[in-house]
Known about the structure:
Order of helices and strands: EEEEEEEEE
CATH class of one domain: Mainly Beta
CATH superfamily of one domain: predicted glycosyltransferase like domains
Structural class: mainly beta
Distance between the termini: 32 Å
Mean pLDDT: 80
Amino acid sequence: MPNWNLIKASPEPSRRRSQRVILSLPIVVRAEGGPGSAPLEEATQTLVVNAHGALITIAARVEKGQTLRIFNGTTQEELLCRVIYVGQKLGGKAQVGVEFHKPSPDFWRIAFPPEDWTAPEPEPVAGKPGK
Length: 131
């Protein structure tokens, strides 16, 4: 349901760059050890994906701005990304938002809808000849 701006009576523009898809995929998160930290390699999963990144769960401590590598075991592909959101830990894992260094809609192997979706054409009314 769109948020309506009551003054202009039109939908507010979305801040999202691409549609989110709720999808649990197995991934491996990797990072080089920084000063005073050990290298990271953790098998985990996605919660939500889009053309620009994902929301994942992870037990390891990561920081906003940190560079990670996400390995998609299904396709055997790996992409660089950066941490853009770190949530509170629940059940030993935090929800972490990651953004690809460049948009990669094919990384998840699902089709993302184009931005210019339009409503379907109405069906012909009974009794009127079709076009």
